[in-house]
Amino acid sequence: MAPAPQRESKRRRTYMCSRCGFPKGHVCAAADADCGGPQQLLLTSPEAEKKRKADGAAASQDRPQTDNISALPDDVLRSIISFLPTVQAAQTQALSSRCRSLWRHAPLNLDEGELNLWEDFILGAISTILSAHDGPVWRFSVTKLARVNEFRGDIVATLDAMLRHQTLSSLSELRLHYRPSTTAPDPLPPAALRFSLLRVASFGHCSLPDTDGAIGPGGVVFPNLQELTLLDISNSEATLHAIVSACPAIRSLLLCDNDAFRRVQIRSRTLVSLGLCSRSSQLEEVELVIEDTPNLEKLLMFRSARKLPRVARVISAPKLEVLGCLSNGVSEQVFGMTYIMPQTLMVDSIAMLRTVKILAFRIDETSLTAAIHVLRCFPCLHKLDITLAEGLFIQIVHNGAIHNAATVECLDFHLKEMMLRNYRCKKSYAAFAKFFVMNARVLELLTIRTCVGLNKRWLSSHRKLLCLKNKASANTRIEFSADDYFVDYKHAERTHQLSVADPFDD
């Protein structure tokens, strides 16, 4: 007869100390900090522990419930309300009588784009909000109204009276754009230039009030203005020069579609970022002169690289680090000046080009010679963004060799990141990319953005064409990504994003 199977003995559960992890019945050293010294900490039984938790839960239900937001001080709640969108900030009044009082005195963010109303009712709604609100307005944004409204007529006088409201006296951010029109220049309300505390200003599709080149009657000063955008301003460049001179603390300036400008001369000892943007070909007739800008770090030309200023001359920008987008080839040093992209950009000192770390340009020529000339002019590049023109390249690189014996300093010592846009399924494009794979000695990342769908066969074929086994840098990593045909850079608003290292990276 087989012996009866022995039952496995149950393993007794050991109750551990929640503070130090040792079994019950010990001297808990972790209690020192709580009780001022060691003491005997005996753990209770599971039944007693359950009863203690149940009693605690019942006691918590008896206590009045309070949320964390209601416990915040009034000043903190006002700050939270002031950063909410216009409608959501007003809706906080429904939460409690305390919130109703806080909204009426909190700094107001007033943006007509968030009201979700027809154009005929926007100005009336803004007037109602200003009448019901006793606190200051820190941001005022009206960007979608036509100057002449079918319901209200000419709104310039109404806007001017609104901007003179006492709650707007300490305005910090002002965005005032008319809807684009083909009629005569739409005048900006004179009151728009009365705010001396402005830090951000944007004026669009209008004509700034000026008197003999001075902004406003007798001229004005914006001592705190750091960010300025001028969009489709119909004034001459004399008004631009006056308003830049009136901003002694300006750090970023964006000029978009200002076709009335012919010779733009920028002088500012505080300017860090300058952006140019144009949808038309009028920018090709502009002469840009940058002088006495000791803190300028970014010179950015967005939209199409084919719509660049006729001449962009940089006289003094010793801290220039980001430049683009440029196009075409480079000539040699002529009469003591280095011309970059003929009839597009020139600088007075070759030393200025050594400060450039990020460069974006477009290749429109039929050989690699133009790209090599560009690289020789910027010997300290760390990041390179190249847009390839469609169908213009021929295979002129053999085994990745440079036909000219002169070295390219940035390829030997500095270039670590590179992007090629509009890459095609052709051997000539692979030969162009292969040149950098076999000559960039410290390259870490090469991003190739193609205009075609990716598949394993295509990727395998082009990786072979790039000769990755013979790459100059063992750390080079190549990434392919499918993308639409790239036409231009559209992130003009990055002119004001000073913390963004590469404004061309999308």
UniProtKB/TrEMBL annotation:
UniProt superkingdom: Eukaryota
Upper classification of the organism: Eukaryota, Viridiplantae, Streptophyta, Embryophyta, Tracheophyta
PROSITE patterns: FBOX
Region annotation Disordered: where it falls in the sequence: 48-69
SUPFAM superfamilies: F-box domain, RNI-like
Name of the protein in its database record: F-box domain-containing protein
Residue ranges annotated for the F-box domain, each copy included: 66-121
InterPro entries per record: F-box-like_dom_sf, F-box_dom, F-box_dom-containing, FBD, LRR_dom_sf, LRR_FXL15/At3g58940/PEG3-like
